[in-house]
Write a structure and sequence with these properties.
single chain; alpha+beta; Glutaredoxin; 4-stranded mixed sheet; two-stranded antiparallel ribbon; 10 helices; 6 strands; 54% helix; 12% strand; disordered C terminus
Length: 221
């Protein structure tokens, strides 16, 4: 099995699209060798803890209403090509995602990371829910088989906040500046929402590398 580390933020539309492309490639592969772990990377580490109005955030980030609309038109086009459903008009808040990353971390302890990451993307980009709110996150936890009461109790505490922030800082110290970033076998780095065809090529190359060497080939080497 090959380790695949994914650095992502659940409010990053390109992370959602990148996951959809990766999922498609894995579904089409006869054998998917990846053991996947999701890692925290906050696009907005200085976001107020309660988040902020999304429209104000986008206009400040992109320099006005029209530039923001242009950027998200391109995102909507890419999402459609990836078969991803977005309903950006429902999103009212730009959340602080530290607590969402804490939930992803706890989900990893239970082997539920992929389900929780998918649920977070759907809650935010499809349903327009505030994934910075503890109750929303606890609902997501419950919907993926985690204990809602325990998740809510942890979310309303300071549990693992420092650890997640340290992991985020470590990612930046390693040179990661944008998401999604994929690290294959702790060696090969891919950035951005990569097409299924590229992932198919990666999977094929990994399969070739893992294939047993015949005696004749070994002697020739």
């Amino acid at each position: 099995m090959i380790r695949l580390d994914i650095f992502s933020d659940p409010v990053c539309p390109w992370c959602l699209i990148g996951k959809a492309f990766l999922d498609r490639a894995i579904a089409d592969a006869p054998e998917a060798p990846f053991v996947i772990e999701w890692h925290p990377f906050q696009l907005n580490p200085d976001m107020p803890r309660d988040g902020m109005d999304r429209r104000a955030y986008l206009e400040a980030k992109f320099g006005g209403k029209m530039p923001a609309a242009t950027v998200y038109a391109r995102i909507a086009e890419a999402a459609e090509a990836a078969g991803v459903t977005l309903d950006l008009g429902k999103i009212e808040r730009m959340p602080n995602t530290l607590d969402a990353h804490r939930l992803i971390h706890w989900a990893g302890l239970e082997g539920r990371q992929d389900s929780v990451v998918t649920a977070l993307f759907n809650a935010y980009f499809r349903d327009g829910r505030d994934i910075g709110a503890p109750d929303t996150l606890a609902d997501i936890a419950a919907g993926t088989g985690m204990d809602r009461a325990l998740a809510l109790r942890l979310l309303t505490s300071e549990a693992d906040r420092d650890a997640i922030m340290q992991r985020d800082a470590h990612s930046r110290a390693r040179g990661i500046t944008a998401v999604p970033t994929f690290i294959v076998a702790d060696t090969h780095v891919l950035t951005g929402a990569q097409q299924p065809e590229l992932w198919a090529q990666v999977l094929a190359e990994l399969a070739d590398t893992a294939a047993p060497t015949t005696g004749h080939e070994a002697g020739r080497a």
